[in-house]
Amino acid sequence: KQRIKQKFKIAKRLTETTGIPHVVDHIAPVQGKNISGLHVPWNMQVITMRQNAKKSNKFPYYVSCSYEIQG
Q1: Which residues contact 64 (CB under 8 A, 6 or more apart)?
Q2: What pLDDT, in 10s, does the model give residues 8-56?
């Protein structure tokens, strides 16, 4: 739980210092169409709100490729 809270603190601090809204995003969406991720630190990243809106509820292509290669 502490590592998850830390991600939210980082997003808040980046928003405050840059003036650009940042959010915590699930890399693999929790309710994705083809894959569902978990609410765990290794499935979370801090990105700008704009990047998150562009990504929407999709699993990034580069991540899905790395999963295919690894197994």
Answers
A1: 35
A2: 999 999 999 999 999 999 888 887 666 677 889 999 999 999 998 887 7
Give the count of alpha carbons within 13 A of 40, CB side only: 6
Helix or strand holding residue 23 (H, E): strand 22-26
| Rounded-to-integer distance, Cα 27 and Cα 21, Å | 18
> Beta-carbon neighbour count of residue 11 at 10 Å?
21
For residues 25 and 39, is the Cβ–Cβ distance under 8 A? no
User: Encoding tokens for residue 1?
Assistant: 């739980």
